[in-house]
Amino acid sequence: MAKDQDHCPQPAMNDAPENCIAASAAFDEMLEIDDGEGNYAGLRRWLRDMAPATLAKRRQEAELLFRRIGVTFSVYAGGNNPERLIPFDIIPRIIGGAEWAFLARGLTQRVRALNAFLADVYHGREFLRAGLIPERLVMLNEGFRPEMQNMDPPAGAYVHVAGIDIVRTGPEDFYVLEDNCRTPSGVSYMLENREAMMRLFPDLLAGHRIAPVGHYPEELRETLRSVAPPGCVGEPTIVLLTAGSNNSAYYEHSFLADEMGIELVEGVDLLVDDNIVYMRTTQGLRRVDVIYRRIDDDFLDPLAFRPDSLLGTPGLINAYRAGKVTIANALGTGVVDDKAIYPYVPAMIRFFLGEEPIINNVPTFCCAEPKELSHVLANLSELVVKEARGSGGYGMLVGPTATAEERTRFAAKLKARPEDYIAQPTLALSTCPTFVEEGIAPRHVDLRPFVLTGKEIRIVPGGLTRVALRSGSLVVNSSQGGGTKDTWVLES
Amino acid sequence: MRLQIRHKTEYRYAAPVAYSIQTLRLSPRAHAGLAILGWRVEADGRRDLPSYVDGYGNLVHCHSVNRRHDSVSLSVEGEVETTDSAGVLRGQAETLPPSFFLRQTALTQPDAAIAAMADNAARGRTALDSLHDLMSAVHEQLEYQTGRTDTTTPASEALRQGAGVCADHAHVFIAGARHLGLPARYVGGYLWTGADGQEYQASHAWAEAYVPDLGWVGFDPANRLCPTDAYVRTAVGLDYHAAAPASGVWRGDSSETLAVRVAVTAAVGAQ
Amino acid sequence: MLSRTADSLFWLARYVERAENMARTVLVGHWMASMASSLGKPGNEWQSALMASGCEKGFAAKHGEAATDAVIDFLVRDPDNPSSIQSCIDTARRNGRSVRTALTVDMWQALNETWHQIRERLSAPVPAERVVDTLEWVIERSQLFSGAYNGTMLRNDAYCFTRLGTFLERADNTARILDVKYHVLLPQDEHIAGALDYYQWQAILRSASALRGYHWVYREKLKPWLIAEFLILRPEMPRSLRACYEQIASHLGQLAEAYGGREGECHRLAGEAHARLRYGRIQDIFQSGLHEFLTWFVDHSILLGREIGAFYLT
Fold this sequence. Notes:
The structure holds three protein chains of three kinds. Chain A has 14 helices and 21 strands. By secondary structure, chain A is α+β, with helices and mostly antiparallel strands.
């Protein structure tokens, strides 16, 4: 009934990088950076000195641990399945301090540009006037919300929480695969994985200096505090708005609310009077200043949007527009969380920041642009073509493995509606040692750091590493054999 | 001409409700053809309603009642000076580019019938001519009848029934215009029909379409003419949902009846 | 705390207690009916159980005569009866689930386990020989939940609301069980204080787990006015109306204090009833009529519940 974008904390909400090729040709992070001493030196020694039987036993312990937590997960999620929703791999993924510093700079730059783009799209639209993106691509985009036009959110922050997916194809070669700017989830896995590692492998952790991640809830809280509306007096009251316990991401909502020490509310707990948002407490109505919402735009307010939504609060958007409450992430960030807009992000960085992108996009061709469409049609056998909108899966062509007939048929679709497609070359994703059935073997990984934007940008070192557990598989989506790893950023 | 508007709306609840909230789009904003001499929006006797300007540039008032009540009454009173501009809009505050108004909505999604009607009106003509023809076609094919449709009836359904109120006429026209690649939007407001003292049970609705090189032009398919100085424009949006004079939600186990009285009078001695 | 959370805790506790008390009511009916049968004088014991639990209308709408099996089934498993044991546990769990984060792990486990097991046990009508077993099991599970929440909840406003639910319901049910006796008619040829009458009073005490307690306090044979006094006015009897209202008044006072001294009609009503129970005398109650007193009490409790809702839970 409620089409909620915030699903169970499967990190891969959209697709895995299907446009990638198999392991044998990929760059392995442990083997190819390290020769003796390096980021993986300690881990390499530890794995070498560990008897296979012991490692297997530790993995069993990890499974038991997560089974217990998985019980919590599934009970919260309403199911009775005690399996953990996403398998956890006990071998951490390690990133060096310098590598991380580079990534952090690139992420900060990118998120600044995304926020600047949103501010511009909802005000003077200079970027569009300069012809840097087709006007219709934005104006007809589902994520563009007229309600946001000319609105000034505090600190100019629209994307308060961003999950930027990063892939690596070589020692120095990082790319942004996707920007998740609506209600990105998965941070509870990041926190929980570290907890598990600390409990299971204290000896291994003791041998490394690893940047902590446990302060994420505090950082998020600070971010939310910093965007309290101008009329707020004293300490802002922050709440986390959830769709409720029937939603499979509920565990993450209640976990974060607990850790931040804020109230977890549902739409029915809030009330709008004279454009001020209140929550209904046993001591009467208490004013709310900042709402961290994990509900899709359309369901936020039955008065302004879908009247059949039971999840939202009538009048919320009025209060928001009137500047009496801050909503995080802002309404209307979906316009930048879209494959069709993704190719223009490097131009956004140049236009709004006057800088060259530190981390590049995966080279992408927008079929909406005639020149690029011609290139795509001419090179269909080397490219992966995806639908620009929606969750994809259907309407996709993997050039290298498709038959000539499939390519011809797809070319026709492309010519009919070019604006619906983007194309990317195939990528060889990096691999990391992973403990699988056969022992320790390389498996493809990607990374989702979480970037927080308030008055300042804060990033907790590392993020969620997702790993494709099946040999040769590039799909990190949990329902298709994906898992997660703890991510270590070494302090130099 | 100088016009006086009196618009009263009363919501009654069969059993008292604990809470209700309204979004009101009942205040016009000036443009070249409209000067506002005085305007007042009241709800339950209250004049200092919180307000803001929305994404379309509409002036929106908000009214919430957080106690047991069994009715809500709204009252609008105003006086304006209008000038005829043959339906062409000038001097209005535009917040969104015309291309935005090509978006489809559930209420204005064209089906085969609407597409055919629009294509027929277009037949190689200029944009302006096509829109006039479209307006005529909508006027012919939709009879003005209350009670056949409601605020959730999509344009395709209204056309299929061949009947509807001015909002439906506007929706069908908008669907057709967008099908032709011309941006179009819904307009809510008031109409002086010439019968002073006559009370109506609704305010009026028409459409605007964007004509290249000319700008936004008003079209009233229900009356088959472009807005004159008898029209007072109060709100615009993609469709009725975005521009409704009053939308409300209430909480309680009850049912609602609505009574509306609108009177538009030409002020004595004005021309 | 959020009104909705407090409301769910309040009703969760009420429904668990209601399930327990329904089990007790059915036990009373069961004992009384067996006793009457074995003495060869079957009467309207089951009818009186239906009346006491407020399920008479619902039963009559669905069935005809108050035959044993039909009544037991209606009171224990029937989903059409919102007060049946099955329905109570369903509702309790639903409330608990919606405010999961407000429950301690032990509370949730007690509640969830009970719900799972009761679905199995009551998936088919309970055979006659398992009735008492099953009812005693329900009482056990309710006590487990009570033990869990009393043992693990922080002593804060959430705890107060939970306790208010338990004691409001408990007091209401003790009054109703006592009132069963009023509705049960002695057959014509039995006289008051005869064997049947005696066993009926004994059944009432047993269902309130008060039989031994009675003897400890009174050290004499069962006497109706002492039984009534025991269940209404004695503070040592934990299920007595007085003991319950002691808790209710105390927790409402704690809430008032926690919330900066704010008091409402619910505080006055609770105080009023508490005073009547604290300073009342059994002879005065019997003077104006036990049944009248119990009726007043049940009505008063319903009103108090509503006022608590209006003051804190909306």
